[in-house]
Amino acid sequence: MPKLTAEEQTLTENTTARPFIKWVGGKRSILPELTARMPVTYGTYHEVFLGGGALFFAVQPERSYLSDVNLPLILTYTAVRDQLEGLVAKLVDHSTSHDKEHFLQSRKQFGQEKDLTTVAALFIYLNKTCYNGLYRVNKSGGFNVPMGSYKNPAILDEPNLRLASAALQLATIKQHSFADVPVEGDGFYYFDPPYHCTFDGYDKDRFGDAEHQGLADLCRKLNRAGARFMVSNSDTPFVRSLYKGFHIEQVQASRSVSCKGDQRGKETEVIIRNYE
User: Fold this and answer.
1) Domain 6-273 belongs to what architecture?
2) Where are the domains of the chain?
3) How far is residue 46's CA from residue 48's CA, in Å, rounded to a whole number?
4) What is the rounded distance in angstroms from the CA atom of residue 236 to the CA atom of residue 216?
5) Tens digit of pLDDT for each residue in 47-71?
6) How far, in Å, CA of 50 to CA of 193, rounded?
7) pLDDT tens for residues 253-264?
8) CA nearest to 155, candidates 178, 188, 137, 133
9) pLDDT band, residue 77 (cuts 50/70/90)
10) 95: enclosing H helix or E strand
11) Nearest to 16 by CA among 146, 166, 176
C-alpha cells in the first residue's frame, strides 16, 4: 500500500475545519469549557474578536457573523471563503521561496498590497513563519515580528484550508470595532478580547481599560435586548467588577503571553455569561 503524503494524512485525520492561522490567545485549549457553556438554541452566532476562530470552527453554526478590527485578518478570511484557488497558488509560491530573504521581503511588502489573495497569502505566510505566530505592528501599521526558527513551517495546509473554506461559505465576514457589532435579540455573542493585563499590541490601536469598559457596556446592552453573550478574559479584580451581576466562572487555560513573564503557562481565566 503506498504511503500517504503529509497532506493526505492530514485530510484523513481531520475531517472538521480547524483554525488555519496561529493566534495568541487562541481558544483551542479551553474549547470543551466554551462549547459546554453555549446555549442550546440561538439565532445568529456572532464571534466578535475573531482571531483564529477556534470556537466558530468547533461549532460551525448555520448562521454566523464574524468580525474583527484587524483588516488584514478579515481580508484573509474573505479570501479563504471566496478565492481559495488563487490563495492556494500564492501559498505554493511562498512555500517554495521561503528563506530569510524572502521572509524579510514579504514582511516589507505586507501592508502595501491591495489584491485580496496577495494580502491573504502574505498574512498566512508571515503567520506561519514569524516568531511564535505573533501578529504585531508598529504605529504605522507595519508588521515587525522577526522570523521564527522553524525547520519546516507548515505554510500551506491545503486540506484544512479547503475545510475552512467550506465552513465559511454561509458566514458574514466584516471588519469593524466591537462597538459596531449589530445587536440582535435572538443572537448569541462570543467575545474573546485582548485580555486585561496582557500584551495588547496586535493592532496599531491598543485595547486598554476604556475599551474593556466599553465591551462590558455593550454586553449590558445585549442583555437588555434579550441576546445571550459569553466573554473570555483574564481573572482580574477589574474584569470581575465590570461584569458584576453576571455569571462568572473560573477555568484553567494555557497562556503564552502574560503581563508577568514568569507566570506564562497555566493561568486562571474567567468565562462570563448572562444566562444559565
Assistant:
1) 3-Layer(aba) Sandwich (3.40)
2) 6-273
3) 6
4) 14
5) 999 999 999 999 999 999 999 999 9
6) 9
7) 875 544 444 445
8) 133
9) very high
10) helix 84-97
11) 166
